[in-house]
Structure formats: structure tokens, C-alpha cells
UniProtKB/TrEMBL annotation:
UniProt keyword Transport, yes or no: no
Protein name as catalogued: GTP cyclohydrolase 1 feedback regulatory protein
Organism: Littorina saxatilis
Record flagged with keyword Transmembrane: no
Compartments in which it is found: Cytoplasm, Cytosol; Nucleus membrane
Positions of transmembrane segments: none
Gene Ontology biological-process annotations: negative regulation of biosynthetic process
Cellular component annotations (GO), alphabetically ordered: cytosol; nuclear membrane
UniProt similarity note: Belongs to the GFRP family.
Pfam family, one: GFRP
Main location: cytoplasm
SUPFAM superfamilies in the cross-refs: GTP cyclohydrolase I feedback regulatory protein, GFRP
Signal peptide: none
Length: 89
């Protein structure tokens, strides 16, 4: 899994942080302290952790991920990270 996308709502910059979907690497999600949840009304599941994005980004950097992009969409901040370690040869 060479790419990961994390996000948080601007008014919730202290957490929670969305760190993956139901197809994300379970070992990485455990490392991030994330829990798989499904909110009422959604037809998908997502991994969330209670930590703010800054701490999640610090943890991902230790795992070899680098931020390649960051943007704001409405009231949401989104970071895209890439890891060369996760690429298959």
C-alpha cells in the first residue's frame, strides 16, 4: 500500500482523524490506533483514530511515508502520503 489519504474536519483539528477505508492495511491501521467504524446512513466503513492529524502524520513519517499533497475541501483538510517502501517490485 504505497498511498494513504488522511483527513479531518477543520473545526476538529484536534481529532478524530480519518486514516483509511475498509480495504486499508489492518496492520498499519493498528499501528495508528485506528478503529473501523460505520456511521449511520453511510454505505461504507472507515478507520478513525482519536489523535490529531499532526500526530498521525508523525507516525506515518516514522513508517516511511511522505506528504505529497495537502488540500482543503469545504471544511475538510486532506493529506495524501506516499511510501516507496510499500511499492511492489
Amino acid at each position: 500500500m504505497p498511498y494513504i489519504l488522511i483527513s479531518t474536519q477543520i473545526r476538529l483539528e484536534s481529532g478524530p482523524t480519518i486514516v483509511g477505508d475498509q480495504w486499508s492495511d489492518p496492520e498499519l491501521m493498528e499501528y495508528l490506533g485506528a478503529t473501523l467504524i460505520k456511521e449511520f446512513g453511510n454505505n461504507f466503513e472507515e478507520y478513525r483514530c482519536d489523535e490529531p492529524p499532526r500526530l498521525v502524520l508523525d507516525k506515518l513519517e516514522k513508517r516511511g511515508f511522505q506528504v505529497v499533497s495537502m488540500t482543503g475541501v469545504g471544511q475538510t483538510c486532506i493529506w495524501t502520503l506516499h511510501s516507496k517502501d510499500g511499492e511492489k517490485e
